[in-house]
Amino acid sequence: MRTLKVNLKENSYDIKIEKGILKSLGKEVKEVFNGEKIFIITDENVDKYYGTLAKNSLEEEGFKVEKLVLKPGEETKSFETMPKIYDRLLDFKLTRKDLIITLGGGVIGDIGGFSAASFLRSVPFIQVPTSLLAQVDSSVGGKVGVDLPRGKNLVGAFYQPKKVIIDPLVLETLEDRFFRDGMAEVIKYGFIRSKDLYLKLLKLDSKEKLMENIEDIIYECCDIKRTIVERDEKDLGERMVLNFGHTLGHAIEKYYGFNKYTHGEGVAIGMYNIAKLSEEKGLVSENYKDLIKEILIQNGLPFNVSIDEKEEIIEAISLDKKNMGSTLKVIIMKSLGNAEVYDTTIDFFR
Ligand SMILES: NC(=O)c1ccc[n+]([C@@H]2O[C@H](COP(=O)([O-])OP(=O)(O)OC[C@H]3O[C@@H](n4cnc5c(N)ncnc54)[C@H](O)[C@@H]3O)[C@@H](O)[C@H]2O)c1
């Protein structure tokens, strides 16, 4: 078992990482919650494998448990889903002394966390992330929210969970394409904060080898995110480095109508192209774009795309909420394992 503590004064919490920990979910929850009712929010794919296990483990500890199973996919993370969740919470008569558990990937964590933040002006919640992306990234740091028809993550809150419980064994049932998506974020952590992590990942050249080391990998990623969030919880400065490759990645995803590239693939292409652009502009002390390319290929991720309509991509970047205001913030990897926020303008991409 590996444990990390996220130090955010009265909003501090533990992240527990252990293979098989899901079987003791009830006991883990009892350490931080002594109320009566628990409402689980999950999706169909995750419910199929782990819904009953989680519910039983909680009931064994004497909790009264209700479960809501949503459709899988980003479409569920929409503002329109919220009234359905609130209705079920009202039916169950959940109070502010009760608890919500999000059991799923980033979609469930984000929308379930936002339900917890907003229902009755906030109900405590625990994250039980089940995708690699959620285990290394979205479940830690308290960003919760939903999408609007005009864009992703436009409504939300900073609302920290009471605990994050990570069972790396559940990744066995995650589809390969989602595993690769998570790996794009894992690789990102190496680039932004840890050359050692990058070097370690380079040696793990198959999914089997990655899975053998997965507990340590998740721990290292969560530790990097924890450190950054502790210094900049509200995303006003350093936390933005977590977006390395993301602005360009999102724009590329959007340009291709969200069905050609997954989020992780967009990020992968974004990281490589930002590195290329910053090298061309002489902003970096080392030339490392080929190192980025090498590790992306090793993990089955793309690095380049041909873009004919460059202006459309630039338009998408300027509409991204992270770039609202006059300056554009781009994350530059100054050297391997060291990224910084760089203030520029949209002309950076021209
Ligand atoms: N809050 C944050 O800080 C933050 C950070 C990064 C990303 N995100 C958000 O996370 C979302 C993406 O997360 P995601 O990639 O986890 O997507 P997701 O939640 O859609 O999960 C991906 C797929 O894997 C399935 N799945 C999850 N765990 C499984 C398991 N153990 N076995 C079998 N299938 C499983 C899901 O049903 C889904 O089909 C996006 O909405 C993104 O905006 C949030």
What would your notes on this structure say?
There is one protein chain. By secondary structure, the chain is an alpha/beta fold. It folds into 2 domains: 2-169, Rossmann fold (3-Layer(aba) Sandwich), CATH 3.40.50.1970; 176-349, Dehydroquinate synthase-like - alpha domain (Dehydroquinate synthase-like, alpha domain, Up-down Bundle), CATH 1.20.1090. It has helices at 25-30, 44-60, 82-91, 106-118, 132-138, 176-193, 195-203, 207-212, 214-231, 246-255, 263-280, 289-298, 310-319, and strands spanning 2-6, 13-17, 37-43, 64-70, 99-104, 125-129, 143-148, 151-158, 163-166, 328-335, 338-344. A hairpin with a 2-residue loop joins strand 10 (328-335) and strand 11. The chain is globular. 47% of the residues are buried. The model has no long low-confidence stretch (mean pLDDT 94). Nicotinamide-adenine-dinucleotide (NAD) binds next to helix 2, helix 4, helix 5, strand 8 and helix 6.
By CATH, the topology of the largest domain is Dehydroquinate synthase-like, alpha domain
Mean pLDDT: 94
Which stretches are low in confidence, meaning pLDDT under 50 for 5 or more residues running? none
Number of strands: 11
Q: Within the largest sheet, what's the order of strands? A: 1-2-9-6-5-3-4
Q: Gyration radius, to the nearest Å?
A: 20 Å
**Ligand kinds:** nicotinamide-adenine-dinucleotide
Largest sheet: 7 strands, mixed
The helix tally amounts to 13
Q: For this structure, what is the CATH class of the largest domain?
A: Mainly Alpha
